[in-house]
Amino acid sequence: MPKPVLTSTVRQSGAFKDASEQSVLVRDVRGSKLAKNCWLDYKSVTDEIFTRMEVHDSKKPEGSQ
To answer: How many CB atoms lie within 10 A of CB 34?
Structure first.
């Protein structure tokens, strides 16, 4: 079994189906606190990715790409 790369996760939820049916992002599903929490999961994952990218970039020697 592969080792997880990130510590943050995105929960499985019917809110994603609701978003699809409403043709909106999960953050825009009306009347669903769970949908808002699902969106915060995505935010947490992207924040972690960007933080790791910044750490990775700061370890590169100057002038490298």
So the answer is: 14
> What is the residue range of 41's domain?
31-58
Give pLDDT tens digits for 18-43: 999 999 999 999 988 899 999 999 99
Dihedral of CA atoms 51, 47, 45, 13 in degrees, nearest 10, equals 170
Nearest C-alpha neighbor of 42 from the set 14, 5, 16, 3: 16
d(CA 40, CA 46): 10
Spatial separation of the C-alpha atoms in residues 4 and 15, rounded to whole Å: 24
Query: Is residue 9, in this structure, part of any structural domain at all?
Result: no
